What we know:
Mean pLDDT: 90
Number of strands: 0
Order of helices and strands: HHHHHHHHHHH
Oligomer: single chain
Strand content: under 5%
Shape: elongated
CATH architecture of the largest domain: Orthogonal Bundle
Amino acid sequence: xxxxxxxxxxEAAIYLFNTKGFSGTSIRDIAAKADVNAANIxxxxxxxxxxxxxxxxxxxxxxxxEIEHGFSLLECGAEICxxxxxxxxxxxxxxxxxxxxxxxxxxxxxxQVVREIMSTYHVKERYFFKKVLDAGIQSGExxxxxxxxAILQLKALLSMPFLNMHYxxxxxxxxxxxxxxxxxxxxxxxxxxxxxxxxxxxxxxMKT
Length: 208
């Protein structure tokens, strides 16, 4: 039995959920992979659904912490703040590639757990993104854009490499789990922020 059986259970569950799917994975599968007694899973999580909820909660709690850390830089400017939020989220997702992949995939399914996540964590996420975009528009840093569509595009950029892992790795030959990816992809999203959200430099100069 591993020293930290709870951590071993979570690690095994994430691996199996990704390879066999949530429905195709049994408690016995998880216990065998984690090298623990099935009773340990019941002790920590009650059942497989409890384990799933733990994965969701743990992921989004830490995800929102990264967003909030970037949001704390809003006084430095909306563009700087938004780039920091992107950098933090990408680093976090790359450090937790398998968990990110599983969570994003599960979020496409209409279930009670997903609805609860959307009504709590996603609403908070939208608040922070909207606050930064509003601030950028008000200050003149950002164009007078549709905030809803800007968030939609940003979310797509942040999730695509992890939600479509096989395409990214096997067709584009990009490896999100490699250390270089977060820094490289952050630069690409920064170019999107500059080109899509920000006013052209000459317009900023005219305003100053």
